[in-house]
Design a protein that fits this description.
Rossmann fold, 5-stranded parallel sheet, 269 residues, alpha/beta, 10 strands
């Protein structure tokens, strides 16, 4: 199983060199990404890399904070993050970053050390894959869990900025999953059952009402409350849809944190 590796950072020379070496020497699938908040958010969501390599360069507080969008996959343990930095870069990163678990690798980069770590990650992946064939499978009766557990919200929107904003607004109070299309939402809902869905009304390919109709005929989704996300220009059409489809309401975006949370509380309690 070859690793999928995301390479980013302001030190483009180091990033490009490492990307070439990983592909040519080891045959890894290396994906380069602009170190902006929205670009990182999009590519992590789309590619699901197992390793993220950040090549620090002429950083500012704002550019370091952009890497905080990687906080969720790192916290979940779904990827390993390696930061390539000088001593000063490392101190600056630690001071301004919210990431709670990264590996630092000094410049000039020791390819031997990097390859050794990547080999170790690959071996762990293979072990987990083999163990999964005979591992215990845990069943949890959700009806018996604490009634005060955090609710799970699925947010569906094709606009990256909207997804980022809503995720940041809600994750203080809820577990939040985000997807960028109706198709991705249906795939997710086949295996998962969130407590509520925030569904963008106007999306390419499958719009909100189309997705709504699909999930209402899915056995595990028929009773999930749905709130449409809509711009002001679609407000009239949404009101008509409310009458036809009977979702739990709509939110006009962009919305304040208090407005979104209040609407969710109104639906979920």
């Amino acid at each position: 199983m070859k690793l999928k590796i995301l390479i980013t950072g302001k030190n483009r020379k180091v990033a490009a060199d490492i990307c070439d070496r990983l592909e040519n020497d080891k045959g890894y699938l290396a994906v380069k990404c602009n170190p902006s908040k929205t670009a990182l958010f999009d590519i992590v969501l789309a590619e699901l890399p197992k390793v993220i390599i950040i090549c620090l360069g002429d950083e500012t507080v704002e550019t370091i904070e952009a890497y905080n969008v990687l906080k969720a996959p790192i916290k979940q343990g779904s990827c390993t993050t390696i930061v390539i930095a000088s001593e000063d870069d490392e101190k600056f990163f630690i001071k301004h970053s919210e990431l709670d678990r990264v590996l630092f690798l000094s410049r000039p980069v020791s390819l031997f050390a990097l390859y050794e770590k990547l080999n170790s990650i690959e071996e762990d992946m293979e072990k987990k894959k083999d163990q999964g064939l005979s591992a215990f499978r845990e069943y949890i009766n959700e009806n018996m869990e604490d009634e005060h557990k955090r609710k799970h919200i699925l947010v569906v929107d094709d606009d990256t900025e909207q997804l980022l904003n809503i995720k940041e607004q809600l994750e203080e109070f809820y577990d939040v999953t985000v997807v960028k299309s109706g198709e991705a939402a249906i795939k997710y809902l086949i295996k998962h059952t969130p407590d509520l869905i925030l569904l963008d009304y106007l999306m390419p390919d499958q719009d909100g009402p189309t997705v709504f109709r699909q999930l209402k005929v899915m056995n595990n989704c028929a009773d999930i409350p749905v709130i449409f996300l809509t711009g002001m220009t679609e407000k009239k059409a949404v009101v008509q849809t409310l009458t036809e489809l009977k979702p739990q309401g709509y939110i006009v975006k962009p919305s304040k944190k208090s407005e979104i949370v209040a609407k969710i509380i109104d639906v979920l309690g």
